[in-house]
Fold:
Amino acid sequence: MAVTIKQISELSGVSRGTVDRVLNTRGHVAPEKAALVQQVAQQLGYQPNMAGKALAARKKSYSIGVLLCSKGNPFFEEVIRGVKAAEKELTDFGVRIQLQTVKGYDDQQLKTAMQEIAANVNALVLTPVNSKIIADEIDTLTASGMPVIMVNTDIEGSRRACYVGSDYMAGGRVACGILRLLTNGQAHLGMLTGSLRILGHNQRIAGFRQIMKRDCPGFTLSELETTEDDDIIGYENTKRMLISHPEIDALFLVAAGIYGVCRAVQDVRRNIMPKIVCFDATPQVQELMQDGIVQAAIDQQPFRQGYESVQTAYQCLLTGKPPRQDRILMESRILIRESL
Amino acid sequence: MAVTIKQISELSGVSRGTVDRVLNTRGHVAPEKAALVQQVAQQLGYQPNMAGKALAARKKSYSIGVLLCSKGNPFFEEVIRGVKAAEKELTDFGVRIQLQTVKGYDDQQLKTAMQEIAANVNALVLTPVNSKIIADEIDTLTASGMPVIMVNTDIEGSRRACYVGSDYMAGGRVACGILRLLTNGQAHLGMLTGSLRILGHNQRIAGFRQIMKRDCPGFTLSELETTEDDDIIGYENTKRMLISHPEIDALFLVAAGIYGVCRAVQDVRRNIMPKIVCFDATPQVQELMQDGIVQAAIDQQPFRQGYESVQTAYQCLLTGKPPRQDRILMESRILIRESL
DNA sequence: TTGTACGCGTTATCAA
DNA sequence: TTGATAACGCGTACAA
Structure:
């Protein structure tokens, strides 16, 4: 049977209260007693009992804020489903969620939203914008003792507690691998990324290039273009790309704007359709797969991203420590028509 | 905040003890009071608090038996890892696991093992052999009040509490789908199943045929052969198949014996290698994928099968009821070289 | 038949 | 600085 606080208190000859104070570093303990308790706990390999912890935590009623730059982005619907699933499981443990979404990527606006929501919660889960203003705000909250967890998008140069989300490099590698299999290793590639300024998109391309260089001597890159995550821009740029590069027989879609790209393909091409691999199996993409336009989608488990980020925030609140892992990365899954 | 027994007792004007007796149908309660409590609980949507339940259950120290026909089958190593992961999580809740493996599929031997292990545990997780002897033994244990849960393989005509494992039909469908993409829809197929007497294998073939009929007019089935899950038999039968059917350019491997099949392919074919899709990414299969012999493997999450089956058994013990779902099915995942 | 009281492990509070 | 005690939700032994 696992070690309990009671056992430690008996073995070290102090009260349960003192043991609790030592283990949770609440102070107000004589140094020699603290040292003794520490040693005994160490020796017995004490691991706090989750059931007991959860039950006691119920009295406190934690509040977790979830702030997503997700308005109008269907990808995040699954993330939100995951958040709500975690919320449901954690109500037993006295947790309530405050979910808020903002539109666009304006860092000033996001900062304001962060401050508002942070005033009412004990922990914060958010999709950051990659900007110094946001990094600083994260550091301010972290310094005030609030666990701040990134979901889906990471930010550089801040003291966020943890990142939960896609492994963009790995996703790019898998995308190249499946395209290699779809084309028998011979392809004239067109690449459509979202934006060259977005870290995740560039990491996907880097992963793709890595496999391409190593395993795909028969691949040539005809052109790299952007969609700005927009269907209309994606449509126009793809049309132009396909007309000026009639040899293109495979498309790697790095980010959003997928529907626009596919419409352009259908408008320009009649006979030989290019093989298309993209990311995120949103309902729209699922339809394109059903119609045989898109052959495969790489999925990075949006539901789990939402679920795990909230669970991680709760663990931080419960233990008072940052998570063991600095990054919790989702596996890249290959989805095809038959796996829907 | 969620509803508690205490709240129900206050609202219905009876003691906590009585509420407990009603909700857990322990009897010894006046009918009118029972009805009242039922109604109040219903109305408030009472859901027992897992933390409290677990904590109380700790006194009892449940024991769960896990009996696998897995000796010498590398697939089950991941299942066992999942079992051990669940064990680790549940030690806090007073659960201990008794794991036992047997070799082969002899139903008499398995029955004996079941009886031995069942004498010392409160719940049983097992991979059954599809035989009446085993079905009857499961029913005997179920009748004695023990939850009996099937993992990886289901059994027909028994009162097992639940099945946790592969969705064989879905796996077959996905296998056909990926083969369709690998071959551009044109293929002369060779199929190698494990045994025509094993339900799961036949279900995989049924799923495959379903998609083949619907979506793959360019597929023709050259031959269907068995490996008896054995590398040597797989080697011999594949060799014969490839020689008598030189047109074969795609292989669907339904079960084990994969290494033998691949060796035969390498021995017989020199130039044009067939596309190969198989099940379960064991270390051996991963190596074959690295070498480019096998293009894709369908994975049915062995780790989760082990983990979820034990968790399900624990839930049965905790609630005293069979699980909500009759079958807990794993998603079929496509693995390629780059996703390893 | 019904109610009370205690214990599970942890945490918070109050008194010493 | 300490220790004792109550509370969280549930299960159950025991008393009424």
In short: DSSP finds 13 helices and twelve strands in chain A. Residues 4-6, 16-17, 20, 24, 48-49, 51-57, 59-60 of chain A lie near DNA strand C (CB under 10 Å from a C1'). The CA atoms of residues 130 and 197 of chain A lie 10 Å apart.
